[in-house]
Amino acid sequence: MNSSLCTGSVPAAALSRRQFLNRFGMGVGGVALADLLTPARTLGAADRGVLDGALSFAPRAKRVIYLFMAGGPSQLETFDYKPLLNQRQGEPLPDSVRMGQRLTGMSGNQAILPLAGSAFKFRQAGKSGAWISELLPHTAGVADDLCIVRSVFTEAINHDPAITFLQTGSQLSGRPSFGSWVHYGLGSDNENLPAFVVLITRGKVDQPLYSRLWGSGFLPSRYQGVQFRSGKDPVLYLSNPDGISPESRRLMLDRLRDLHQHAAEVSGDTEIDTRIAQYEMAYRMQTSVPEVMDLSGEPESAVAAYGPDARKPGTFAANCLLARRLAERGVKFIQLYHQGWDQHGGLPGGIRTQCRETDQPCAALITDLKQRGLLEDTLVVWGGEFGRTNYSQGKLTATDYGRDHHPRCFSVWMAGGGSRAGTVYGATDEFGYNVVESPVHVHDLHATLLHLLGIQHEQLTFKFQGRRFRLTDIHGELVKGIVQA
User: Fold this and answer.
1) Which residues are within 8 A (CB) of 90 and not within 5 positions of it... i.e. 6 or more apart?
2) CA-CA distance, 469 to 459, in Å (whole number)?
């Protein structure tokens, strides 16, 4: 009897087909598990990703910092200058412009949809001459580092499906997030920190954020994002309980590893390697996370550049500074969320606050990365889940108005990582309602961002329930005009 086909004293002929395949398969799985349990792996060997050595293009970017403005920032108050709206203030939105578009229930029953011009002035900035709102003076100062895309459009008109679409490539929950796809494909450059880190501005109350937005979906759980919080425990359940020493934790992990190895030999559970790797990562993070979260060693001049809130844990400014520190340490995907952009009413006052909290930190992040030689291979992305209407939701006055959700057009900007600096791409009509030049679908945006990372978007797939899934679902095209030549 060939011993390689036996488990214990049970002959291969006596095994059921399922038992045979399960036990024989562990001969291969056991090799992978043994590799995982070697001292080198336990100490944190680099995670190479499924595309290791097989990238479709030479990558322009090694990492992504995604600044997500949750709620839908108004493009008409930030990057898409439409003086015609001021000239025709209060006039009904022409049917020829709306073209029968479905509206939300929040403004769909209004007697009229009055055009609302921006309460803020616009100026041309930098050599590119990009029109940028007076709300964003610091961003205007780095205009020549930006690639502003004014023609992005989406399919969703409400927050949950729209934000899920931007984060996962699908309006339905359960798909892997953008950061999870990047980690799965490219692996990690730091064995002591997660490849995908999430930072959320503390204290902002608006549309809810769900952990599934940075979840791994049907990918192995090791690829999900890890949220770093402000306060005593940046990562929940990471610290040792009172009375537990590092030596005790190490001994416990060693014994737990033995138990998992035994379970693997019996069951063939493919998640076991993930489970062990996550335990070991958590152990290493007990040292690496406090170090990266500690800003005390940052020069005061560097911190001050991010604004007066940069020393306050959990603020957007502090998170932007942390994003730079994480990028320096090889974290592959850093996701920042800043809520509060959902201004159905009181827009002038609300967006003024939002821009005051984010303008200087965003510009400082770009400048900081550039000064440290990191912007060249760090792709920074700014944007929300959709835009805002050119008409006022509710009552329009001389000093106040609101804007409803608008999926037909919104603005996104990029910097670094091979994006085309000093560029304004795409255009909307004079009413700021429809894209009239170079439309960019969400899947096109995702395909282009992956391209800058060296990934042909159709090649990064995962088979689940009999179908191969990808971030761009079933379509998506590279937008060559926003890629540096």
Assistant:
1) 114, 115, 396
2) 10
pTM for the full model?
A: 0.87
> Token pair for residue 160?
């949950």
Does residue 284 contact residue 188 with C-beta atoms inside 8 Å?
no
Q: Residue 299 has what pLDDT? A: 94
By the 8 A CB rule, do 323 and 365 touch? yes
Q: What's the rounded Cα separation, in Å, for the pair 198 and 211?
A: 10
HSE of 301 in the Cβ direction (CA atoms, 13 Å)? 2
Report residues of the chain scoring pLDDT below 70: 1-46, 268, 270, 283
Closest CA to 104 of 385, 348, 407: 407
Whole-number Å distance between alpha carbons of 232 and 237: 11
- Cα angle at 437 between 436 and 442, to 5 degrees? 95
Q: How far apart are CA 208 and CA 191, in angstroms?
A: 32
Cα distances (angstroms) measured from residue 96 to each of 350, 461, 467: 31, 41, 42
Output the CA angle 280-283-289, nearest 5 degrees.
Answer: 120
Rg value, the chain, Cα: 25
Backbone φ, ψ for residue 92 (5° rounding): -65, 145
Contacts for 48 with CB less than 8 Å, ≥ 6 apart: 187
Residue 131 pairs with which residues in a beta bridge?
A: 124
Q: Please state, in angstroms and rounded to a whole number, the distance separating the CA atoms of residues 342 and 351.
A: 9
Domains, in order of start, for the chain:
16-45+240-300 (no CATH), 63-230+313-482 (3.40.720)
Instruction: For residues 155 and 36, give the distance between their C-alpha atoms in angstroms, rounded to a whole number.
Output: 43
**Rounded Cα–Cα distance for residues 112 and 114 (Å):** 6
Whole-number pLDDT of residue 25: 42
